[in-house]
Design a protein that fits this description.
Blueprint lengths: L16 H13 L2 H4 L5 H9 L3 H27 L11 H8 L7 H34 L2 H4 L7 H14 L6 H28 L10 H9 L2 H11 L8 H4 L1 H4 L1 H29 L7 H4 L6 H32 L9 E2 L8 E2 L1 H18 L2 H7 L2 H20 L4 H23 L2 H36 L3 H10 L3 E11 L7 H10 L1 E13 L11 E5 L4 E8 L7 H7 L6 H6 L1 E10 L9 H12 L4 H4 L7 E9 L1
Parallel strand pairs: 3-4, 3-7, 4-6, 7-8
Antiparallel strand pairs: 1-2, 5-6
Helix pairs in contact: 1-9, 1-14, 3-4, 3-11, 4-10, 4-14, 5-6, 5-19, 6-8, 6-16, 6-17, 6-18, 6-19, 6-21, 8-17, 9-14, 9-16, 11-20, 18-21, 19-20, 21-26
């Protein structure tokens, strides 16, 4: 492959065979969600318009098409994709790029942190609703041709969703290779079905101009306009995946897949649905399946179900990646993270996140029971996330030195559009918008509680740590036994003596001949090169401090980090190295200033259910020695 056509991590930057393959992969992973929106978006929007669906159809189609152009094409594909963090995207990557620690004041740092955590939490709310509405809307196609099967729609949906979550532990490698081709056929089917209807009613091509959209909004009552805009937003949900998945494919393939395949197919399909409703107003009940001849309905239902499963898989994988990044950056407690592919480091499976997401998704299906009802819950989380992304992108542009006036004009205009959509979706708060917001609020609260609790624990550790100079002096004054071998003591701090070392020496009155104080630092960049990974400082004849740096997209692989260091150890010594880790018992003490007692109790519960430290740092269990310590907060 021509090296001039790829970026430093091998992702295509202009047209090539590799770029074409990456664009094909992006169709399945990135555009699975937005590609299945035609199943329900225009239907819900026309129903929200009320009477005379054939009159409103062209205006609504125009609203959808121009929303795709403004929100997805201009804002995400052209603008937001520029705000990459060394090739990676997503809210957490954007928050790391801003580097809240360098904000001008403590209030700014806290504000950026809270804003970023809310954005991340909103994606979890989206992750619970997307599989539910996507699969349910596809299975509901059975109602038109087989009304007797209507009672089975809910059980079939639940069975598909349960199977989808159960197979997550097997990994998405094999299924992922099928995503692109299947979605390519899906987008081709969208375009073909829409084109057939446009040929019969070519006047709907007027919707390609913004005038029908402006005319509809100008003449409809305010309440109707807001209801329709809230439904129109369903057509752009999934656009945020362009930025979140940029690291997997690269900027150019994602843009190529959108402008060459996805956008034209979606526009043709929405025009086709509008044409059908103009000719047959009764078709607004389910215009998507009305596009196909009767003999093709059942195959189309099966095909749509497969496409919605792919869309659901994409959002589930995105939740796994976001959770991993949040854990690495200290926003969530350590979780059990399993890698499902030996070739692709980004393919991970988190059992706890999987089952909690499944519980939330099934709850949504059982609570709302139809895609029309779920539409009331869908959109508010994504519109909030889009508004936060626009705001953070503006702050990044400001930090990069772009003129403030230009940022205010461009990002301000997009933010106004985002806030209009958010306000329109806010009208659905009682109908179901409360559900994803409640999930997001709970997640954001847990993230803030965890981060605050970790800060309290670290402050308590700092009060108990011994100074390095005093410790080394004590080693020389007292005749502690020195045993053969090398010991690595893990520490969260880059100064002071780890509590595990102090306790080990006090109880055993002995210490290995060579001691490494190992600290792990997560950077604001997604990846760290091996030649920049390690910093070694000699503290004494027998003691060294080793600081290992990992990107927020990497595994915290301590043994690998030590192999990168020039410690003059052979592989056999590394394999026999003893890693000492503090097994901390955190106690919430109401007499010590900190969080509210009930929040401290919640933090303690979270802390006691975290994954083992050794496993989190990729340390073989046979090399781990845990030293008990007690921390009061």
């Amino acid at each position: 492959m021509d090296q001039m056509q790829v970026d430093p991590r091998g992702r295509p930057t202009k047209f090539s065979r590799s770029a074409a393959l990456s664009a094909l992969g992006a169709l399945g992973i990135v555009y699975g969600d937005i590609g299945t929106s035609p199943l329900y978006a225009l239907k819900v929007a026309v129903q929200a318009a009320g009477e005379a669906p054939n009159v409103a159809a062209v205006g609504i189609a125009s609203l959808i098409i121009w929303s795709l152009i403004v929100v997805v094409s201009l804002k995400y594909a052209i603008l937001i994709l520029r705000a990459d963090n060394h090739g990676e995207g997503g809210v957490v990557a954007m928050l790391a790029l801003l580097n809240a620690r360098e904000a001008p004041s403590k209030s700014w740092r806290h504000g950026l942190l809270v804003l970023g955590l809310i954005g991340a939490a909103l994606l979890y709310g989206d992750g619970a609703i997307t599989p539910a509405i996507s699969v349910l809307s596809a299975v509901e196609g059975l109602k038109a041709d087989a009304p007797a099967l209507t009672p089975a729609v809910l059980p079939i949906t639940i069975a598909i969703l349960i199977l989808l979550f159960v197979v997550q532990s097997k990994g998405t490698g094999f299924i992922g290779r099928l995503f692109g081709p299947i979605m390519l056929v899906w987008f081709a089917a969208l375009a073909l079905l829409g084109t057939i209807q446009i040929v019969h009613t070519p006047q709907v091509l007027e919707a390609l101009t913004p005038w029908p959209a402006l005319n509809f909004v100008a003449h409809a009552p305010l309440a109707v306009s807001f209801a329709v805009l809230g439904a129109v937003f369903l057509a752009v949900t999934g656009g945020e995946a362009m930025y979140a998945d940029m690291g997997h494919f690269g900027r150019f393939p994602i843009r190529a897949a959108w402008f060459v395949i996805a956008l034209p197919a979606l526009v043709l399909n929405y025009l086709g649905q509008a044409a059908l409703i103009v000719r047959e107003p009764s078709g607004f009940a389910n215009p998507f399946f009305g596009l196909a001849p009767a003999w093709a309905h059942f195959p189309l239902i099966a095909f749509a179900t497969a496409a919605t499963v792919i869309a659901s898989q994409a959002i589930i994988s995105g939740v796994f990646s976001l959770t991993q990044q949040s854990v690495q950056l200290g926003f969530l407690p350590r979780l059990n993270i399993l890698h499902t592919s030996a070739d692709q480091e980004g393919q991970v499976y988190l059992p706890l996140a999987n089952w909690l997401l499944m519980a939330a998704t099934l709850t949504a299906v059982l609570l709302f029971r139809s895609s029309d009802a779920l539409a009331g819950a869908y959109g508010i989380a994504v519109s909030g996330l889009m508004a936060i992304s626009t705001l953070l992108a503006g702050l990044i542009a400001l930090r990069w030195g772009y003129p403030a006036g230009l940022i205010l004009l461009v990002n301000g205009s997009f933010l106004i559009v985002d806030l209009i959509f958010f306000a329109a979706n806010a009208t659905k708060l009682i109908e179901g918008g409360w559900f994803p917001l409640a999930l997001a609020g709970l997640l954001a609260f847990l993230m803030l509680t965890w981060r605050s609790g970790v800060a309290l624990v670290e402050a308590a550790r700092a009060d108990q740590r011994e100074n390095e100079a005093d410790f080394i002096k004590r080693l020389t004054v007292h005749s502690f036994a020195r045993t053969p071998g090398i010991a690595a003591f893990l520490s969260t701090a880059r100064s002071g003596i780890p509590l595990a070392l102090s306790h080990h020496l006090r109880h055993n009155q002995a210490l290995q001949e060579r001691v490494l104080l190992v600290s792990v630092e997560t950077t604001e960049t997604p990846f760290v090169a091996d030649d920049e990974r390690v910093k070694v400082t000699k503290l004494g004849d027998c003691m060294e401090r080793v600081i290992l740096r990992f990107g927020f997209m990497e595994d915290l692989d301590v043994p690998h980090g030590l192999r990168c260091a020039d410690l003059k150890m052979n592989p056999a010594q590394l394999d026999e190295l003893s890693y000492y880790i503090g097994h901390e018992t955190v106690i919430a003490d109401p007499h010590i200033p900190g969080m509210a007692p009930w929040r401290e109790t919640l933090f303690v519960s979270m802390q006691r259910n975290t994954a083992p430290t050794g496993a989190s740092f990729c340390i073989p269990s046979k090399q781990v020695v845990e030293v008990g310590t007690e921390i009061r907060i």
